[in-house]
Design brief:
This protein is mostly helical. Helices cover 63% and strands 4% of the residues.
Length: 102
């Protein structure tokens, strides 16, 4: 009986230490209040994305990180914007080189 009580006390102490270590390492949960179901903090303007828009970009947190569909959407939007800007730069450079030849 005495051994069982000591075993139980040691098990409780080990469990408490493991819990405290896990709480210190992983935190006690999300720091932000959860969003309503279906809501998303991911926002980007329809065109003319600025550096501040990218800096303020937030993704909904899920169990294992961020919601993959939101991250994929934001990356696709940014890639499209970069592609559009680069095409416009090429267009302006071609226009400028044509003007210099004339």
């Amino acid at each position: 009986m005495n051994n069982a009580l000591i075993y139980l006390i040691v098990m409780i102490a080990v469990a408490a230490v493991v819990f405290l270590l896990a709480a210190l390492v992983f935190g006690r949960g999300e720091e932000l209040a959860p969003l309503p179901p279906g809501a998303s903090p991911t926002r980007l303007p329809s065109d003319d994305i600025t550096e501040d828009d990218v800096r303020e970009l937030k993704f909904q947190q899920v169990f294992r990180g961020y919601k993959m569909t939101e991250v994929d959407w934001a990356l696709q939007r940014l890639a499209t914007e970069v592609e559009t800007l680069r095409a416009r730069v090429r267009e302006l450079e071609e226009l400028e080189s044509c003007e210099h030849r004339a």
